[in-house]
Amino acid sequence: MKKQVKNNVFWVGKVDWELRKFHGDEYSTHKGSTYNSYLIQEEKTVLIDTVWSPFAEEFVENLAKEIDLNKIDFIIANHGEVDHSGALPALMKHIPNKPIYCTANAVKSLRGQYHQDWNFQVVKTGDKIDIGNGKELIFVEMTMLHWPDSMATYMTQDNILFSNDAFGQHLATEKLFNDQVDQCDLFNESIKYFANILTPFNPILRKKLGEITALNLPIEIIATSHGVIWRDNPLQIVEKYVQWANDYQENQITIIYDTMWNGTKKLAEKIAEGIGLADPDVVVKVHNLAKSDQNDLITEVFKSKAVVIGSPTFSNSILHSVAGFIHLMKELKFKGKKAAAFGCYGWSGESVKVINELMANAGFEVVSEGFRHQWYPDADAQISAVEFGKTIAKL
Known about the structure:
This protein is of the alpha/beta class. The protein has 2 domains: about 5-245, Ribonuclease Z/Hydroxyacylglutathione hydrolase-like (Metallo-beta-lactamase, Chain A, 4-Layer Sandwich); about 255-395, Rossmann fold (3-Layer(aba) Sandwich). The protein is about 35% helix and about 25% strand. It contains 12 helices and 22 strands. It has a 7-stranded mixed sheet with strand order 1-2-7-8-9-10-11. Strands 17, 18, 19, 20, 21 and 22 form a 6-stranded parallel sheet that branches. Helix 8 links the parallel strand 17 (about 250-255) and strand 18.
């Protein structure tokens, strides 16, 4: 069932209440998601994006109930990733010759995934299409936000920015708009989305946000491809992106560890105690990596000014869970954050050195040689761990 966004613009997407993992198994979606597709019915009838391929047949069937598919004048593919383009093969079986407007890179993406030579029409920033009733669609390339093929589409007069993946969040809801949902859920999912997906592209994003501002387009609605549509003060999410893209951090130190026989866990708790004693104003969070969601932890890292990583020594190195998480942090290219390491060991004791090297390689400023203790921490070792925490707070 289509839902009105504004005037002759309608949402025709899919709410996925059951989604719990995305991008394969890389991203957790505790609250599901939506795949937002939009139908514009002016003198020209335009479809903007589709839905993920598991819902392709359902999407086409529902769309055909709302409109004769042959009356669609053209399709806009803002992004070639399958969660947005997945229903194109099913749709194009019905209307094989209809134009698909997209970037040059999107042509490569769509051809590469679906092996179809559809009627592609390449557009670039500033190109326009007249859709009648005095309204135009203007295209804005959004390269690396978050794929090389991404773009946004702006609709004049109604002042709607169809932003695709930018400004979205994974949040399943029957409500269309940002002012209709729980604000804590909305912003928690928005910052998680940014931290886990867009952080590596901060320099590009800063430039692109400047370009969007320079276009001087009045924006009354930001219609994203995941989650809710921003209609109540839509520029608030743009302002958040400006903050987040500037190597964001709060007054927070996050301790993340894995443990074998709880010795490293005890050190984590005592280090946290020491940080709190030295700086009562700092937010300290402690997470057992093995019992936590990695994407939620990335969000905590994103908010932190410093990260303290712990692992026992295992096979002359560190636990693979810790190694994998540090690799994930490296992929996200965090900037301006400090790091320190700790861990227990029984025999050889290399874990702290390994963590320091990996964290430096991941772009963190390692501010200490770290703290390590042989065997389970006794009372003296626990006191030393508290002192180490105080040192970390001061650093």
